[in-house]
Design a protein that fits this description.
- By secondary structure, this protein is of the alpha/beta class.
- The protein has 13 helices and 17 strands.
- The strands form 5 sheets. Strands 4-3-1-2-5 form a 5-stranded mixed beta sheet, sandwiched between helices. Strands 7-6-8-9-10 form a 5-stranded mixed beta sheet, sandwiched between helices. Strands 15-17-16 form a 3-stranded antiparallel beta sheet, covered by helices on one side.
- The radius of gyration is 22 Å and the shape is globular.
Length: 409
């Protein structure tokens, strides 16, 4: 049969233009394009497998402002491409002469109107059919992004009382002072509406963060702690292992240690979390930023599945979210983003590397430092963790100033 690639996009205004360009290139090479329209990133991960597509493509820049956009690829197994595969593609592309390739046939753009419902059915299958959320009052911030249409429907169909915010995308308001990077929006709404909890997605729906009934924010570390404890008690935490990144808070590591749960750490990025999960046999892993993977259900971080799993635990345990999240006490953590004009290894920056070494020596085992470049923005991220907030704030500030001085002369 003719090969097909499935494509979805988020709500930013450049999405249609980039879709047209991608589709035009693909159909000229004899590939059918299945158009899902506006849909979440994890939906394409699932649908690439379910439709037996050659690959899946998402046009999105995730949590970034509307001026940004990007292209994410998934294999037909629903997984992001490993670094070595991306590098191999780039090498072949550099030596590829498009004009000399044969055009034996032409593909077609084929709308896939059933894509959203197929994905909704898949997400709903991640929790028991008996579960319903009647009596739970929740606030949902859709970030004017990909979950704006399907998110509220899923939770209302399950009986919840849903107060929806930021579900009217106009091409430019995606992530604009809303969504998972602006939890103050749902914190205020939860208190004003006396809701039981609230949660906020990012623009492409692959991450979610929560607010409890008292308006306190809960990040991915809290959500993983809640889910890991629950799964261990039920005997369903495979290999008694949780996979996290180096950005996860020290408080999560200490909480898991108290529960006797093994924690494996990877570099930042949900693809690296997935690779380690497959390697170690773990079925739960994720990032502090809210990308959480339940490998029994999906091969990508999925904000909707995460929200359903957390809510089902709240329902079964019959406890407020604040009490469930009390399993973990967050250690003080400071994160500073520094705009950079170029990227050099931090070891090649004399002052920066000197300050990092000195700070590591000062903190010892009572803290840690992580300095890295953002994968999506021209930023260097400086994270410092420790018991003394004033001390770590000073360390983070000094390192950030050094980076700015040495990379932005």
């Amino acid at each position: 049969p003719k090969p097909a690639i499935i494509i979805g996009r988020d709500t930013r205004e450049s999405g249609e233009m980039l879709f047209d360009a991608l589709a035009n290139g693909l159909i000229k090479r004899g590939v059918d394009v299945w158009d899902c329209g506006v849909i979440t990133t994890p939906a394409i991960s699932y649908l690439a497998q379910a439709t037996n597509s050659l690959a899946g493509i998402v046009i999105s820049a995730s949590h970034n402002p509307y001026q940004y956009n990007g292209i994410k690829f998934f294999s037909n197994a629903g997984m992001k491409l490993p670094d070595e595969v991306e590098s191999e593609i780039e090498e072949k592309l550099a030596a590829f002469n498009l004009s000399k390739t044969k055009r034996e046939r032409r593909g077609n753009v084929i709308p896939l109107p059933e894509a959203k419902q197929r994905y909704i059915d898949f997400v709903r299958g991640s929790i028991s059919e008996e579960v319903n959320f009647s009596g739970i009052k929740m606030v949902i911030d859709c970030a004017n992004g990909s979950v704006s249409e399907i998110g509220p429907k899923i939770f209302r169909d399950l009986g919840a009382e849903v107060i929806v915010l930021n579900d009217a995308p106009d091409g430019k308001n995606i992530n604009d002072h809303c969504g998972s990077l602006h939890l103050e929006v749902i914190q205020k709404a939860v208190k004003a509406n006396r809701a039981d909890l609230g949660f906020a997605f990012d623009g492409d729906g692959d991450r979610v963060l929560f607010t409890d009934e008292e308006g306190r924010d809960l990040d991915g570390d809290h959500l993983m702690a809640i889910c890991a404890q629950y799964l261990k008690r039920k005997g369903k935490l495979k290999n008694n292992t949780l996979v996290v990144t180096s950005m996860s808070n020290l408080g999560l590591l200490l909480a898991m240690d108290r529960l006797g749960i093994r924690v494996l750490q990877t570099k930042v990025g949900d693809r690296y979390v997935l690779e380690e999960m497959l390697k170690s046999g773990a079925t739960l892993g994720g990032e502090q930023a809210g990308h959480i993977i339940f490998l029994d259900y999906a091969k990508a971080g999925d904000g909707l599945i995460t929200a359903l799993r957390v809510l089902s635990i709240v329902r079964e345990e019959k406890k407020p979210l604040s009490e469930l999240a009390g399993i973990m006490e967050r250690a003080p953590q400071v994160l500073i983003n520094v705009e950079v004009k170029e990227r050099k290894p931090f070891t090649a920056l004399p002052l920066t590397s000197k300050l990092i070494r000195e700070a590591e020596s000062t903190l010892g085992r009572e803290g840690r430092i992580l300095v890295r470049y953002s994968g999506t923005e021209p930023l260097a991220r400086v994270m410092v963790e420790g018991k003394d907030r004033k001390k770590i704030e000073k360390i983070a500030k000094n390192i950030s100033q050094a980076i700015k001085k040495e990379l932005n002369p």
